[in-house]
Every structure is written in structure tokens, then in C-alpha cells.
Design a protein that fits this description.
- By secondary structure, the protein is of the alpha/beta class.
- It has 2 domains: 152 residues, Glutaconate Coenzyme A-transferase (3-Layer(aba) Sandwich), CATH 3.40.1080.10; 231 residues, Glutaconate Coenzyme A-transferase (3-Layer(aba) Sandwich).
- The chain is 28% helix and 22% strand.
- Strands 4-3-2-1-5-7-9 form a 7-stranded parallel β-sheet.
- Helix 7 links the parallel strand 10 and strand 11.
């Protein structure tokens, strides 16, 4: 295909895959022609495409579920329309047309002898969105693995394709800090052998997986699988042997990591499923040993969690945090929220959330963890929650928090 000129019309909505599954050649082609063909409504999730902020026309509307990766710059320029919603609602958002869905761009594996391609490591919301999208375009990447269990799609389903042979985008990664490792060790102490875990991504998530190296028979059911999961599978820690659903198999929507991870997912017990499965309340409710480990920007003295904004800018998202936290707290084992006690010289434990945005309700949080300790909140009244959360705040801010709590009571 040469371009989108024969298919695009002003006012159309276009979505595409995220993270390592982002079909960059198709997106770049779209952005190159978009000024002539727009205005358009565009949707993606986590993107590492730095061209977005520079190339998207001011007449376009960029929609997402948060300000992740390259979308952060659009958010800071007030050019990003964030739809605050739970990840589990994505299938409905596409089905009802709240997210753009006229055209979908995906990255797929080469076809098998039957002419079927795989979404490979990027099933996620893409598998649900394509059910409601009349026009689909594919980047057929020779390096996208054909993953067993991943949805198969007839190549004939696509209006046009481009052939590539390029490495999948690796996650930009740095090593966890010593503070993150201390927090991770405290989190690991709250996880027992045989539990099924969901762990948020990033360096803090990597530190948690590192801290689980001494555990046994851990199961994984999560949104994004990372190198940490692969390392624990290789070490015999992650077996999924005691999972109540999908025993023996790690379940995720997409992979987010290194070329090592992408090259091995087809040969290890990891399956990628649609969001309508990975985040479904009915599925999560069956995981009675589910421990959800999520991360936050700020937590107030009652346990309310802010995980989306900092200083007026979108840095995160609601995402799947509430889906997993609520299931872990109500029908699973434990909902954990972890964060550093300070950020940019200010306390992350606060009398009230500075941004005024509650990402996760206090009723869905069982434990809050910082490098200074663990605040067990389940079953605790408000006054006791205040005391326990102040006790794990940075020491230099505890008196200030006590005074604020006294004045506010």
C-alpha cells in the first residue's frame, strides 16, 4: 500500500496498537498524509513514537486512557483528550463507539500455511477493538512471533498490508533504585508461595519480580508481562501450578520488555488474551489467591490513591489498577499499593490528594507500602488509617501530616 488517501475521510476515527505492538510504519504513513486528509480522531495507549507530538495536526483529536510515553508531551500541551475509564471497560468503549473505530492499525505475525496471522505479543485491547472496526490495516512483521493461543485472523480480513522485517520496540529500561528495591522486598513479604500476582510495570515492577526469586509456585495473571516474569519462569518460581484459572500458564494482554522476552514468548507457558478476558471481573473473581501490586503517585491519609496526574499533567492512567485491586481485595487475597515516600522533595503521603483525582478508592486498598514500612488498612477505621499511613511517610514530613490531620479532624 502507498498511503491511506483512498480510505480516509475527514472526521474518521483511527486506533492502533500500543507499546511493542505499535505498527510504526503504518502510523508514520498516517501522520505523513493526515494534514491533507483530516481532521481525524486518533486513539492509542502507551506509545514510544516521538513523532506524535510533532506530527499530529492541531485539528486532530488525540484520545487515550492516560498520558503514557510519548503521549505525555501531548498532554502537557493540552492536546490530549484523556478518557478516565477502567481497562475492563475498553471492549465496551469500542463496541459503543466511544473510542475511535472506523479504521484500525495492527502489527501481526507472518501468515501460517492457512493464511492466518497472529496478533503475537499484542492481543490486549486490539483483539476486542477489531471486532467493531470495518477497515483494518496490518504491518506484517517477520519478527513478530506467532504465539500459540493468540487470536488468529485471516490475512484477507485486512484492506491492505505492509511487509516489514524489523525488531520489536524494546521497553526503555533503567535499573531499579535502592529505594524501589527496599519497597519491593516489603511487597514480596506480603506474597505467599502459590499466590497469583498482578504487578504493575516499570522499574518498581521489575524490582518486585526480582524480590520474588525465593518464592515457589507463583502464578501470573496481569495486563502486561515483562522480562521479570520470564526470569522467574526460567528459575522455576513462576509455575502457575496453584492457579484457580489457567493453571500452569501465565496470562497477559501484551508483552513489554526486551528482545529476549519477545523471542521466547512462543516457547514458554505464556498466553496473550484480549482485555475482555484479562481484566474481566468474572475471570478475576475466580482467582482466590490473587495479589494485586500497583503503584501510585500519591496516597492520602485515608488510603485514597492518585495514580494519574502530577502538577497538573497526566503521567499515568486509571488503567487496570482498579480492576485488579478491587478483585484482589474483595474476592482475592490482597490489594497492595506501593510508592516512594517522597517525590521531587515532597511527601507522597498527603493529607489530601493534591490533584483531586482519586484513581483507586480507599475501600479497594488493603496495604500501602513505602520504603519506611507497610500500612495494613483492611478493616481499619479512618482514625487508625491516618496513624498507620503517617507511620510509613518520610520521617521529615510526619509532624506536618499529624498537624494537618489534627486541624482537619
Amino acid at each position: 500500500m502507498d498511503d491511506f488517501g483512498q480510505w480516509l475521510r475527514p472526521g474518521m476515527g483511527v486506533w492502533w496498537g500500543q507499546a511493542a505492538s505499535e505498527p510504526r510504519p503504518l502510523v508514520d504513513m498516517l501522520l505523513a498524509r493526515e494534514p491533507e486528509l483530516g481532521p481525524l480522531r486518533l486513539f492509542t495507549g502507551l506509545s514510544w513514537n516521538e513523532k506524535l507530538a510533532r506530527s499530529v495536526s492541531p485539528s486532530d483529536t488525540v484520545v487515550s486512557y492516560g498520558g503514557l510515553g510519548a503521549l505525555r508531551e501531548l498532554g502537557e500541551a493540552d492536546r490530549l483528550d484523556v478518557v478516565p475509564c477502567h481497562y475492563s471497560s475498553f471492549p465496551r468503549m469500542f463496541a459503543e463507539g466511544w473510542f475511535p473505530r472506523d479504521i484500525g492499525l495492527v502489527q501481526v505475525s507472518p501468515p501460517d500455511p492457512d493464511g492466518m496471522v497472529s496478533l503475537g505479543i499484542g492481543v490486549d485491547y486490539m483483539a476486542d477493538a477489531l471486532l467493531h472496526t470495518p477497515l483494518l490495516f496490518a504491518e506484517v512483521n517477520q519478527q513478530m512471533p506467532y504465539v500459540p493461543g493468540s487470536p488468529r485472523i485471516p490475512l484477507s480480513r485486512f484492506a491492505a498490508t505492509v511487509e516489514t522485517d524489523r525488531p520489536l520496540q524494546e521497553e526503555p529500561r533503567r535499573e531499579p533504585s535502592e529505594t524501589e528495591r527496599i519497597i519491593a522486598r516489603r511487597v514480596a513479604e506480603l506474597i505467599d508461595d502459590g499466590d497469583t500476582v498482578q504487578v504493575g510495570v516499570g522499574t518498581a515492577g521489575a524490582a518486585v519480580f526480582d524480590a520474588l526469586s525465593g518464592h515457589r509456585n507463583i502464578g501470573v495473571h496481569t495486563g502486561m508481562v515483562t522480562d521479570g516474569v520470564l526470569d522467574l519462569i526460567d528459575a522455576g518460581v513462576v509455575t502457575g501450578a496453584r492457579k484457580q484459572v489457567d493453571p500452569g500458564t501465565s496470562i497477559a494482554g501484551t508483552a513489554l520488555g526486551s528482545s529476549k522476552l519477545y523471542g521466547r514468548v512462543a516457547d514458554v507457558p505464556i498466553q496473550f488474551r484480549p482485555t475482555s478476558y484479562t481484566h474481566a471481573p468474572g475471570v478475576l473473581a475466580q482467582l482466590s489467591t490473587l495479589v494485586a501490586v500497583n503503584f501510585a503517585i500519591e496516597v492520602d491519609l485515608t488510603g485514597q490513591v492518585g495514580a494519574e496526574m502530577s502538577r497538573g499533567a497526566y503521567l499515568g492512567a486509571v488503567g487496570g489498577q482498579v480492576d485488579f485491586a478491587r478483585a484482589a481485595s474483595s474476592t482475592g487475597k490482597r490489594s497492595i499499593v506501593a510508592l516512594r515516600s517522597t517525590m521531587r522533595g515532597r511527601s507522597s503521603i498527603k493529607f489530601e490528594l493534591e490533584e483531586g483525582v482519586v484513581s483507586t478508592a480507599r475501600a479497594d486498598v488493603d496495604c500501602v507500602v513505602t520504603e519506611h514500612g507497610v500500612a495494613h488498612l483492611r478493616g481499619q477505621p479512618l482514625a487508625e488509617r491516618v496513624k498507620r499511613l503517617i507511620a510509613i511517610a518520610a520521617p521529615g514530613f510526619r509532624d506536618e501530616l499529624r498537624r494537618a490531620a489534627t486541624i482537619g479532624s
